[in-house]
Design a protein that fits this description.
Distance between the termini of chain A: 37 Å
Number of strands of chain B: 11
Order of helices and strands of chain A: EEEEEEEEEEE
Largest interface: A-B, 20 and 21 residues
Number of strands of chain A: 11
Oligomer: heterodimer
Strand content of chain B: over 45%
Strand content of chain A: over 45%
Number of helices of chain A: 0
Helix content of chain B: under 10%
Radius of gyration of chain A: 13 Å
Distance between the termini of chain B: 40 Å
Largest sheet of chain A: 7 strands, mixed
Helix content of chain A: under 10%
Structural class of chain B: mainly beta
Structural class of chain A: mainly beta
Chain lengths: 114, 110
């Protein structure tokens, strides 16, 4: 079974530019999550999709972040325009529905805004 | 804001010893608890989950849960240098996604 796939693995962009991160969840996992880890801090929740619907986007920092999951398959997270404080590792995870299913994480995208 | 607290460490133990990692959580309604291991530069990997009060054992790993004290721990027996990593405690609450602690960095000294 293929795991959660994220790309790019690394991205270095200038402040003010746009970056789009992609996540392909495990096939059959309705739940897709985006998390972010900023240096020295804990992994923070950004948002949660159930199929193509946004279930919870309470963790999105501001309106420069836009996530989509068209068709309930892969998801994209766009940052526009990027700011220095957006630097960090962006993780995607997916899971089955129901109590107690752990999340399977992708390898993350390391974003550096310079 | 529901919180998950962990001692950031580093926790250093000699090879072969028992490593004990602790986590407290604020939401009394939490029902399931997860431990993830994250090697440097890698993604978190699920290693244990527990629902019921008491102990759950899986190989060298034992998770212990005390809901009354809102406390969950992870014991690693016969620690190996390959166990050196950051261990993350994660707790969902109802339908809300997992809330992670900052993680405890474990170093097993050969």
């Amino acid at each position: 079974e293929a795991g959660v796939t994220q790309f790019p693995s690394h991205s270095v962009i200038e402040k003010g530019q746009t970056v789009t991160l992609r996540c392909d969840p495990i096939s059959g996992h309705d739940n897709l999550y985006w998390y972010r880890r900023v240096m020295g801090k804990e992994i923070k929740f950004l948002l949660h999709f159930v199929k193509e619907s946004k279930q919870d986007e309470s963790g999105m920092p501001n309106n420069r972040f836009l996530a989509e999951r068209t068709g309930g398959t892969y998801s994209t997270l766009k940052v526009q325009p990027a700011e220095l404080e957006d630097s960090g590792v962006y993780f995607c995870a997916s899971s089955l529905s129901g109590q107690g299913y752990g999340y399977t994480f992708g390898s993350g995208t390391r974003l550096t805004v310079v | 804001q529901k919180e998950v607290e962990q001692n950031s460490g580093p926790l250093s133990v000699p090879e072969g010893a028992i490593a004990s990692l602790n986590c407290t959580y604020s939401d009394r309604g939490s029902q399931s608890f997860f431990w993830y291991r994250q090697y440097s530069g890698k993604s978190p990997e699920l290693i244990m989950f527990i629902y019921s009060n008491g102990d759950k054992e899986d190989g060298r790993f034992t998770a212990q849960l005390n809901k009354a004290s809102q406390y969950v721990s992870l014991l690693i027996r016969d620690s190996q240098p390959s166990d050196s990593a950051t261990y993350l405690c994660a707790v969902p609450s109802g339908n809300t996604p997992l809330v992670f602690g900052k993680g405890t960095r474990l170093s097993v000294i050969a």
